[in-house]
Amino acid sequence: MTQRVVPLSDYRNRSTVRVPDRHIEPRGILNDRLQRSLRDLRISVTDRCNFRCIYCMPRDVFDQDYAFAPQAALLSFEEITRLARLFAAHGVRKIRLTGGEPLLRKNIERLIAMLAAIQLPDGSPLDLTLTTNGSLLERKAAALKDAGLTRVTVSLDALDDAVFRRMNDADFSVAAVLAGLDEASRVGLGPIKVNMVVKRGLNDQEIVPMARHFRGSGHILRFIEYMDVGNSNGWRLDEVVPSSEVVARINALAPIVPIEHNYEGEVAQRWRYADGSGELGMISSVTQAFCGSCTRARLSTEGNLYTCLFATAATDFRAPLRSGASDALLSNLIAAVWSDRSDRYSEVRGAQTEGRAKVEMSYIGG
Ligand code: SF4
């Protein structure tokens, strides 16, 4: 097949993508070089956040001088929806809105309504979800549900208010997040997943109180190993609390047993309390990498497409979007990027990846 290089000059993370001359008809399934299908699209709708979590947006880096993307640089709702429709034709079944904090994007409900109207090729509905720090959820949950959001995931790193405030470094209380969670549950955005990033010496003493609090609540508490995302969190391996240790600590509270995945490519290992009082998840990104089943693409606020959370380069979709590219060209670009993908950062973490400049998590939404 002949190939031509599409010059995409106006982007932050320069990369060169070879796009086939002929049109690749979307068939609802697109595999990368390691035979992983494109199934999930995470879309960051803002790079701003009202928290300054020390593992994600440390205040000394993301201070008042930090240059966030200007409004004109962000993909518009129309641009996001157009791309989402093309991704769905290539097999994406789940779209997760992220940030920064996605609820800070003005009129986010309008975007959700536009995405919810997308028809999948087989007629099944798009799974449309969102990850939030919960601070604005109490106010917005009903409108999000009305707009067509399917579910919500809430980040909460501690139940102890002092620990939580220290971690978010913006003086937000646990009570505000729990109120948002309750409201999301009340309006039907459940079952809600609650994500807790565990960092040794900072909040690992909160593992058992969090488990105790959410046991029997119907919410699914998920423990995430602290990761070396971005370049600004000063990650050290000895600060990672392995999932095996989290399991042992919870087992001492109440016995838990592993259960089957819900679907291929699910990142969390599922556990349930032996007495039937609820489900838990372990996301072992460091100690048990799951690159082999990674089906996620990530679209940044400014329209850069990343094929790995730890990517160093991306492909710009905003430039072609804004210079009159046809759906066929954009669709081919998606196919070209995904079929060329071979990322497996977590599996090869170490000597091979040391010192490499990665994209910040707040830019592509974790
Ligand atoms: S390291 Fe990259 S390829 Fe591996 S699971 Fe994470 S995002 Fe996917």
Concise structural overview:
This protein has 366 residues and is α/β, with parallel strands linked by helices. Helices cover 27% and strands 17% of the residues. The protein has a single domain, classed as Alpha-Beta Barrel (TIM Barrel).
Gross morphology: globular
The biggest beta sheet is recorded as:
12 strands, mixed
Tell me the helix content: 25-40%
At CATH level 2, the architecture is Alpha-Beta Barrel
Weakly predicted, low-confidence segments:
1-14
Number of helices: 11
Describe this structure in words.
With 366 residues, this protein is α/β, with parallel strands linked by helices. The protein has eleven helices and 14 strands. The chain has helices spanning 77-89, 108-116, 137-147, 161-168, 174-187, 207-214, 243-253, 318-322, 327-339, 345-348, 361-364; strands at 3-5, 18-20, 40-44, 94-98, 127-132, 151-155, 193-198, 220-225, 256-259, 269-273, 279-283, 296-299, 304-306, 315-316. Helix 3 (137-147) packs parallel to helix 5 (174-187). The chain is globular and about 60 Å long. The two termini are 36 Å apart. Bound molecules: iron/sulfur cluster. Iron/sulfur cluster is lined by residues 290-291, 294, 308-310, 343-346.
